[in-house]
Amino acid sequence: MTVHFAPIVSPDACPALVLNADFRPLSYYPLSLWSWQDAIKAVFLDRVNIVSNYDRVVRSASFEMQLPSVVSLKTYIKPARQPAFTRFNVFLRDRFTCQYCGTHEDLTFDHVTPRSKGGMTTWENVVAACACCNLRKSDRLPAEVHMFPSQRPFQPSVTDLHQNGRLFPPNYLHESWMDYLYWDTELEP
């Protein structure tokens, strides 16, 4: 007789997808996930509703609970109107692609009009650039080195970043999350 044991899954491998009160993820990229500890704490503080559970149970001496796989906030958090200007958000706006050569490797960000020539660190003047292109362009204007960004830099909306984030689904998506995530897996990043 052969006995098959279910694999032991560490609770650390059981993050909870966090949805806003309208059942939309707080963020697509990075995907809004909480550790199992944070999810359980939020349940006890009555800040979330459990939408779905893992098969995994955690126990203490006097308590047993299935780990939440999806939780929704009880209070709606209004999304920011304008995304923060961060290196990560510049990369996300530019789809993690060098705006000069198209590579996805070794990204930095480049001031289209260099700071030494009065360029500002703004959405409209910064693009993702690989280290090679950034070094090649140096502190020169695009016309001086015949290097022009593939798209004109712009200030993205939160929706723009969410749409781009959907192009990069995480490596792991639990089946209970799929009703709340809308990944476009047909498009290549």
Tell me what you see in this structure.
The chain has 189 residues and is an alpha+beta fold. Helices cover 19% and strands 20% of the residues. It has 5 helices and 6 strands. A 4-stranded mixed sheet has the order 2-1-4-3. β3 (48-59) and β4 (64-73) form a beta hairpin. The radius of gyration is 22 Å and the shape is elongated. The termini are far apart. The model is unreliable at 1-8 and 184-189 (pLDDT under 50).
In short:
It is built from five helices and six strands; from the N terminus they run ββαββαββααα. The chain is α+β, with helices and mostly antiparallel strands and 189 residues long.
**How many H/I helical runs?**
5
Q: Mean of residue pLDDT?
A: 88
Tell me the fraction of residues in β-strands, as a range.
15-25%
Distance, first to last CA: 49 Å
Major sheet: arrangement of strands: 2-1-4-3
- Which regions are unreliable across 5 or more consecutive residues at pLDDT < 50? 1-8, 184-189
Structural class: alpha+beta
Q: State the order of secondary-structure elements, H for helix, E for strand.
A: EEHEEHEEHHH
- The Rg value, from CA coordinates, equals 22 Å
Large-scale geometry: elongated
Helicity range: 10-25%
Say how many strands there are.
6
The biggest beta sheet is recorded as: 4 strands, mixed
